[in-house]
Amino acid sequence: MKDYIKHINKDFESRARLGIMSVLMVTESVNFSYLKEALQLTDGNLSSHLRTLEEAGYLQVEKQFIGRKPSTSYQATKQGTTAFKNHLDALERLILTNKNQD
Question: SUPFAM superfamilies in the record, alphabetically (predicted)?
C-alpha cells in the first residue's frame, strides 16, 4: 500500500464534513447558521456532523448569547487543521500518482 493512502482520513469522507472543514480552512470562525446555509444542510444533519468533528478533536465550539439569542460558532483546532491538510495532501498525491495510468 502506498504511504499516502494511510493519510486519507475517514472523518472527512462525507460531503458535509469535507464542506465544514473546507469552510473553516478559509475563515477563522463561523456560526451554525452560516454553515447551514453555505452547505445546504438541515439542522439535524449539520449538528450530527459537527458533533463528530468535535469529538475527533477537529473543532472548537463556542456557545454564547447575543442579546437573548443563543449563538454557536465553530473554529478548526490545530489538530483539525493538520489532519485536514494531511487528508488533502494524500488525495492530491493519489490523483497525481495515478494521473497518467492507462
Answer: Winged helix' DNA-binding domain
